[in-house]
Amino acid sequence: MLNFENKIAVVTGSRLGIGRGVARLLAERGATLVLMNRGDTSDLAAELGKGAISVRGDVTSEADWAHLAKTVEDQFGRADILVNAAGIYPVAALTDMDYAEWRRVMATNLDSQFLGARALVPLMRKAKWGRIVNIASDVVGLVTPPGMGFSHYVASKMGVVGLTRGLANELAADGITVNAVHPGITDTEGASGMPNEVKAQVYMNQAIKRLGTPADIARTVAFLASEEADFLTGQTIAADGGLIKL
Ligand SMILES: NC(=O)c1ccc[n+]([C@@H]2O[C@H](COP(=O)([O-])OP(=O)(O)OC[C@H]3O[C@@H](n4cnc5c(N)ncnc54)[C@H](O)[C@@H]3O)[C@@H](O)[C@H]2O)c1
Is 40 a pocket residue for ligand 1 (Cβ < 6 Å)? Predict the structure, then answer.
């Protein structure tokens, strides 16, 4: 069984959905969680126990990441695991999407993962050990129903895969691995607005014909964040019930 005793794990977007599922699983297996969210999540931190803390921060803000890194260093002296789970996926046709909205998607889904790594890698380097797990998504852009306005999202998540591979190469000598998880359609608050027929159109193409749960995705993230995954880096693992990629 994966064991995270004595590990400090930062999880972004952990108030809801996949991020909360990851935070819960890592805490259950012994990690001390640092929850980074725009709002206060001290209730969740108290529920998780093991000295978990809640740090307010917007993942698109360089200043908020600097504050988070200082808080982690002051309180714990190290950061072992970073899971970048915060993300948004508004549906909008190309011609309905203005540049400000494109930038918001890029900033939340991609820039945030660069900022998070840049803020915490210095602490991981000191310990010569670290795990970064980035949440990616529909990285081929072909699993959403034809005609659906999702190009901005696919572009941001392809960026996540590129960043993951680049950082994996750059940071291996410091004992830091960097991997990405590509969730299939998952039952979260964020996905609750998506019509059920659209969700079904996706998961009926899976070998396992059901929605994923945050716990399904969390187990894959936990493996990549564990000591056991020390020879895996630069990978994107699809936790998607065996979706048939076109
Ligand atoms: N749910 C799915 O079907 C699905 C599928 C593939 C990939 N994903 C990816 O998984 C990740 C989580 O998605 P989810 O479905 O759990 O979403 P969700 O909306 O349920 O939760 C996302 C969390 O991120 C937080 N967040 C958003 N913007 C933020 C910001 N600027 N700063 C700090 N926190 C911010 C939200 O407050 C929320 O707590 C996203 O990256 C998403 O692209 C989800």
Answer: no
Note the Cα 57 to chain centre separation in Å: 15
CA distance linking residue 132 with residue 209, whole number of Å: 30
Is 99 among the residues known to form the active site?
Answer: no
For ligand 1, whether the C-beta of 210 sits within 6 Å is no
- Closest Cα to atom 16, ligand 1: which residue? 17
Instruction: Please state whether the predicted TM-score (pTM) of the whole model is above 0.85.
Output: yes
Within 8 A by CB and 6+ apart from 246, the residues are 140, 142, 143
pLDDT in tens, the chain (246 residues): 899 999 999 999 999 999 999 999 999 999 999 999 999 999 999 999 999 999 999 999 999 999 999 999 999 999 999 999 999 999 999 999 999 999 999 999 999 999 999 999 999 999 999 999 999 997 666 677 778 898 999 999 999 999 999 999 999 999 999 999 999 999 999 999 988 998 898 899 899 999 999 999 999 999 999 999 999 999 999 999 998 764
* Distance (Å) from CA 86 to ligand 1 centroid: 4
Residue type, 6: N
Domain ranges across the chain: 8-239
Give the CATH H-level superfamily of domain 8-239: NAD(P)-binding Rossmann-like Domain (3.40.50.720)
Under 8 Å between Cβ of 34 and 68: yes
CA 13 to chain CA centroid, Å, is 8
Q: Which of 15, 16, 17, 129 is nearest to 82 (CA)?
A: 129
- Here the tokens at position 145 are 């129903």
